[in-house]
Structure to design on (574 residues):
């Protein structure tokens, strides 16, 4: 295996077991992946985001124990993705198989002991420090929205790494030079234009979620480049595109011309070549994509509102607090917001957590609303402003989903039945 | 009875195995679409939904999406309900990771061979396959 891959002395030392079994297995995994991906050499990485801390069975625990007991420690900063449970809110765990909860907690503890920075977030790029690598840095990430955000918005380089492989990259500090780690693997091939989309619609947060969802469905094997987004498009909106397109289509990199770091202009984004394909986005297609994110009836009573997938940023939390201030979530409706401990602490300083809780909403950290046992126990109809949540929840949770804007979600939570500001989607509002 | 010998393009994970072939026409999502505890296909959109892969030689055109694939495969192999071997038309880093981890942790080998796309399509569901470590794959029609 892997006879043709160029190794450093240190790589070879790991492979020969010079540092013990953990590093030998890690190097075997990295080289196996290199062979499978057609890489001829490895690159040094600066950061790893750990997905294998999300419990799905005994193999996860056995692997982490194997690393720990054989003295494996990370060579680069290693930050944890969401776990299966909110470690700080045991009351949210009721009604779940205790064996699963125990396994999930044990796994989270093991990764802490191996030396992870336990940020427990699917949006590590919203925290300062190692989670904000420089443009051009090589990193290893598995969480789909984070893979796309890092590649697209920060210009860091990662493929989508499966469980265990990202741990192996973190232990060895190495990754196969293939795919998104290479210049060729980052070139745009699909041009997406927004000329037909009215500016008033392009200025709505919900537009970015829907656009991401639509791009995921249309991109296929292409690397998309979007022309027509404002230069000052903020990270929350770019995150919405990343998460939506990663969920519906496995998109690991997109460019936005004039906005994202590797696409200052169209020629650069496409590496001087002509686009291989083109998609002209129409308002009608956007509306169809929006509607496809809701299951069944898009009106009537709701049982829950789920916000924060991916984890809410500081600015998203601020927007929610402004909408909820002085309001009250109606009885019988649960409003959950998931975010990282880091953002939760900043939001608490601003008084936003208090605003949320006074209104009757609940905060979830360390995990995602669709993994949280509290939410897993929910039945009926759920409203969300996240295209990613809307895409996965019907299958994962067996609930009906209504997709809407953040404003729609808050109005709905307070009213108890679906409220929707449809004006933003109406041609009259576009000044057409 | 017809026998056919296929020379793999590569042995991603070398090992010997033999068993009845399950030849899938569609890729499989091991996370969400597959139950590691039983080896059963759960994906409601998959043509082989409800069947189990345990002990079979799985000819799999590819995997879908998730980074949970390695752990799901390793868990199924740990529990003895994983495939006996995998035959693929192209290399897959996630499946290889899962198989390497289960070999290291549990000493259970799930060999992975990659064959050409034409050879892959020639492998029929229900046939018998013999994989020799580092060697050819022999397919016997049922």
């Amino acid at each position: 295996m892997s006879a043709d891959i160029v190794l450093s002395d240190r790589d070879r030392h790991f492979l020969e077991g010079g540092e013990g079994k953990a590093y030998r297995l890690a190097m075997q995994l990295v080289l196996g992946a290199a062979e499978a991906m057609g890489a001829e050499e490895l690159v040094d990485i600066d950061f790893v985001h750990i997905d294998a801390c999300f419990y799905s069975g005994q193999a996860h625990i056995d692997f982490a124990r194997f690393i720990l007991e054989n003295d494996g420690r990370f060579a680069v900063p290693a930050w944890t993705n969401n776990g299966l449970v909110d470690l700080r809110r045991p009351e949210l765990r009721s009604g779940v198989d205790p064996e699963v909860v125990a396994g999930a907690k044990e796994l989270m503890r093991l990764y802490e002991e191996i030396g992870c920075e336990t940020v427990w977030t699917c949006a590590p790029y919203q925290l300062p420090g190692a989670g904000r690598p420089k443009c051009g840095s090589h990193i290893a990430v598995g969480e789909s929205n984070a893979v796309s955000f890092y590649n697209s918005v920060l210009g860091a380089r990662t493929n989508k790494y499966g469980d265990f492989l990202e741990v192996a990259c973190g232990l060895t500090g190495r990754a196969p030079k293939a795919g998104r780690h290479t210049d060729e693997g980052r070139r745009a091939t699909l041009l997406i234009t927004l000329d037909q989309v009215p500016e008033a619609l392009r200025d709505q947060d919900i537009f970015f979620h829907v656009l991401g969802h639509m791009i995921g469905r249309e991109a296929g094997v292409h690397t998309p480049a979007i022309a027509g987004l404002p230069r000052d498009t903020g990270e929350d909106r770019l995150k919405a595109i990343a998460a939506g397109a990663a969920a519906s289509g496995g998109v690991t990199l997109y460019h936005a011309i004039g906005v994202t770091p590797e696409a200052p202009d169209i020629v650069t984004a496409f590496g001087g070549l002509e686009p291989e394909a083109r998609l002209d986005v129409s308002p009608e297609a956007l509306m169809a994509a929006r509607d496809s994110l809701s299951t069944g009836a898009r009106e009537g009573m709701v049982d829950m509102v789920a916000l924060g997938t991916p984890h809410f940023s500081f600015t998203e939390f601020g927007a929610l607090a402004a909408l909820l201030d002085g309001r009250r979530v109606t009885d019988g409706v649960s409003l959950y917001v998931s975010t990282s401990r880091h953002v939760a602490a900043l939001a608490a300083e601003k008084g936003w957590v208090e605003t949320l809780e006074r209104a009757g909403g609940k905060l979830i950290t360390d995990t995602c609303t669709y993994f949280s046992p509290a939410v897993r126990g929910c039945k009926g109809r759920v409203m969300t402003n996240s295209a990613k949540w809307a895409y996965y929840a019907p299958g994962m949770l067996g609930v009906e989903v209504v997709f809407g804007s953040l404003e729609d979600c808050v109005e709905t939570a307070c009213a108890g039945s679906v409220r929707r500001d449809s004006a933003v989607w109406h041609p009259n509002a576009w000044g057409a | 009875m017809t026998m056919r010998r296929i020379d793999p393009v590569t042995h991603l994970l070398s090992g010997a195995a033999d068993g009845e072939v399950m030849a899938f026409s569609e890729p499989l999502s091991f996370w969400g679409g597959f139950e590691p505890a039983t080896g059963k296909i759960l994906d409601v959109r998959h043509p082989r939904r409800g069947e189990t892969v345990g002990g079979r030689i799985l000819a799999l055109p590819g995997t879908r999406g998730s980074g949970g694939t390695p752990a799901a495969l390793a868990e199924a192999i740990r529990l003895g309900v994983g495939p006996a071997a995998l035959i693929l038309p192209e290399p897959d880093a996630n499946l290889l990771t899962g198989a390497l981890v289960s070999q290291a942790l549990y000493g259970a080998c799930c060999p992975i061979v990659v064959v050409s796309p034409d050879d892959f399509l020639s492998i029929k569901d229900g046939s018998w396959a013999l994989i020799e470590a580092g060697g050819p794959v022999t397919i016997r029609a049922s």
Summary: The longest helix of chain B spans residues 93-106. The interface with chain A takes residues 10, 12-14, 31-32, 36-37, 65-72, 74-75, 78, 91-94, 96-98, 100-102, 104-106 of chain B (CB under 8 Å). Residues 70 and 98 of chain B are 4 Å apart (CA to CA). Chain B has three helices and ten strands.
